[in-house]
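Cont'd.
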Amino acid sequence: MLRDYVPLLLHIGVAIGFAVSALLMSVLLGKAGRRTRVKDTAYECGMVPQGETQPRFSVKFYLVAMLFILFDLEIVFMYPWAVVYKEMIVESKLVLWSMLSFVTILMIGYVYALKKGALDWKR
Amino acid sequence: MVTLGQYLIVSGLLFTIGFAGVLLRRNIIIIFMSLELMLNAANLSLVAFSRFRLGVDGMPNYNAQVFVFFIITVAAAEVAVGLAIIVALYRARQTTHVEDINSLKF
Amino acid sequence: MSPILFWLFAFVMLVFGAAVVINRNPIASALSLVVCFMGLSALFISLDAFFIGIIQVLVYAGAVMVLFLFIIMLLDLRVEERRKINLVAFVGGLAVAFALFVQICFVVDQLGAAKQAFPSLRAAKMDDVHNVGLLLFTNYNLPFQIIGVLVLVATIGVVVLSKRELR
């Protein structure tokens, strides 16, 4: 039973080995000079940088990410539907109508988000 | 040999970690992550019971797996709304520390 | 279900679950949560719930954690500054959590079935997506529609809560 996992173990070993050796090589072969505090600053001479080093993240990303999760859930329910559809449609049309009503309910939310301009990237 | 009890203990330990996180941490995002841990601990014991009580056809009891399915969906919807509330709260108060949000405190 | 693999993944899951709570840096917490969910999905797969395991990775590690990271970056959270912790609340919380775990152990100990191993499956092939689908669209059709309404409410809630940014 455990023998089935040997290829997986090999795969993990190769992946870790590659990552470690790539990092190690760059340390060993790279011509990195000694790092000092002054060298790590953005400008070696001139003005002293102030404030945050990273710019703040735009709000648009999180709204799109939230809507993505909600529609991701819809797709999750479609996997089992697609698997059983052929078998169940023979008995009754219920499986078709229940999925259609599910999608219709979610479509209301989609239209609402669209009308509110939640997916408008430019603004 | 792995018994049902071992899975239940692991699930209980995960639930306890999440519970301790909710009680001890004061950062609202960490509290939210701990809530996710607790929900998933419940999922683990549901799946363990599903595998333990086989149906008449000798397959796991799939009712529990449908429940887990629903729990994952509800949890993801809850995350989306909860994080939207946290962002709105941050805009109003500029903090994610729960002790700074005490307007309702008596 | 090999015991070695079970303990390995349970250990990984619990260690990284604890790391979520212990880390001071929210980004490190979020990444620990991803590893914790990976371990949990391996445990699901060890219980022959393949579909649930995949969904766990897809929805949690794939979508929910991305959202968590976005929010942490949006709010620009750094390592928390050390605050004065309320010692009574800290010890009390730890005691309550420990009491909960003792209680869970006690209940599991009382459960007679907990000492039995899992029975082996009597089926030629595991088609759990198929079985979940059959149940979902017969017995659980109404809950399925209600989930649809719930997701609709969540969509509208998200849009309304961030309306200020829109206009």
